[in-house]
Design a protein that fits this description.
KH_dom-like_a/b, three-stranded antiparallel β-sheet, OsmC/Ohr_fam, 2 domains, OsmC/Ohrsf, GMP Synthetase, Chain A, domain 3, 132 residues, Osmotically inducible protein C, globular, alpha+beta, 3 helices, two-stranded antiparallel sheet
């Protein structure tokens, strides 16, 4: 077994707020005001989207560097969506400042479908919880 990521969260005095730490990095998590929080940080589903889009950006840049391709500046956005039937999905969008050719556009779409976080989200994942 290899641990590829680690994080912990500690409660803060305000309802729903917590301080997340991972390695030497810290950030605040909270719920929006509409859910009783103070909206001081990313909500849990925001963090899922953030993990996906950061992995997408890094993977595309690594691919471009490896292949000697200039992608130029771009951004990746994601929305976590749900409907009344209980279905959930993520809508991911990649916006490039430079126009890409049709072949490179298809390659970018293929790469996006194979990023590590995409693969993790698409397959079942066991979560083991223990009290310590």
């Amino acid at each position: 077994m290899a641990v590829i990521a680690q994080a912990k969260v500690e409660t803060l005095p305000e309802p729903w707020s917590g301080e997340i730490s991972s390695g030497k990095h810290q950030l605040i998590t909270d719920k929006p005001e509409s859910f009783g929080g103070q909206d001081k940080g990313l909500a849990p589903y925001d963090l899922i989207c953030s993990g996906l889009i950061s992995c997408t950006m890094i993977t595309l840049r690594m691919y471009a560097q490896h292949k000697g391709i200039e992608l130029g500046a771009f951004r990746v956005e994601a929305d976590f969506c749900a409907n009344k039937e209980g279905e959930e999905w993520i809508s991911r969008r990649v916006h490039f400042e430079n126009q890409l050719g049709a072949e490179l556009e298809q390659k970018v779409l293929d790469i996006c479908s194979k990023t590590p976080v995409t693969k993790t989200l698409l397959r079942s994942l066991d979560i083991h919880t223990s009290l310590i």
